[in-house]
Amino acid sequence: MNQVRSADGGPSPVSAARTLAELAYMRLRRHIIEGHYPPGTKLRVEHLKDDYEVGAGTLREALTRLVSDALVIAEGQRGFRVTPVSLQDLADLTGLRIHIEVDALRRSVRGGDAAWEARVREAFERLSAYEQPISLEQLPAWEACNRVFHEQLISAAATPWTYHVLHILSQHGERYRRLCVGLQDSERDVHQEHAEIFDAAMRRADARAALALESHISTTLTLLQQTPSERRPLR
Predict the structure, then answer these.
(1) Which of 66, 82, 98 is the last residue of a domain?
(2) CATH of the domain at 53
(3) What are phi and psi of 153, to 5 degrees?
(4) N or C: which end of the chain has fewer CB within 10 A?
(5) How far is CA 89 from the centre of its chain?
(6) Range of the domain at 136
(7) How many CB atoms lie within 10 A of CB 129?
């Protein structure tokens, strides 16, 4: 789509405002996911507009989009706050992701062609470079590669709606993973989990791949459920 231009050839005021709102939305979303604003934090427009160097209207537009992402709650006349987290919420997210992604993986493994295999192999190799082991400094790059790997695994069967729903679930899953850094069992080998999914998919063992993926998705929830309540960052 061509950018709207003003009479002097530069971006129009409307186009510039949309760009500012998009940038504010993307930065604020990233900061919420990364935990800069903890769950339940009040998001005061009068403070945030200065931090993000945008007007109050632009910031409210960004916050409204984050409400649609379920990362922010609108409280009527009281403003906005970061969506709380809980063990039950994570359980709900985990169950929904398993229901959608595991079914798509089984169909993808059964129907994927040589191009699908090549995409999955390339995504796995890129992911592997960041997770032996995963470091805090490289966590954002790992999250991006992890998302691509999971997307490519189901790419022979997924629909745009599948990707849309899983993208929302992925954002929330990343939020929980970051909140739980340091609490997860030090014996967990995420790379081995991914390798088991990859190997089964390449062997076209759809049932084995599905079981490995379900176990992988469930592990964060399982580890948190086994963590003493006083050590959990959520209830």
Answers:
(1) 82
(2) 1.10.10.10
(3) -55, -35
(4) N
(5) 15
(6) 87-231
(7) 11
The DSSP secondary structure of the chain, one letter per residue, reads -PPPB-TTSSBPHHHHHHHHHHHHHHHHHHHHHTTSS-TT-EE-HHHHHHHTT--HHHHHHHHHHHHHTTSEEE-GGG-EEEPP--HHHHHHHHHHHHHHHHHHHHHHHHH--HHHHHHHHHHHHHHHTT-TT--STTHHHHHHHHHHHHHHHTTTT--HHHHHHHHHHHHHHHHHHHHTTTTS-TT--HHHHHHHHHHHHHTT-HHHHHHHHHHHHHHHHHHHHHS-GGG-S--
pLDDT digits (tens, 9 = 90+) for 88-141: 999 999 999 999 999 999 999 999 999 999 999 999 999 999 987 777 778 888
The residue assigned the tokens 């009281």 is 78
How far apart, in whole angstroms, are the C-alpha atoms of residue 141 and residue 149?
12
Cross-strand partners of 149:
none
Confidence of residue 233 (pLDDT cuts 50, 70, 90): low
- Is residue 1 included in any domain, yes or no? no
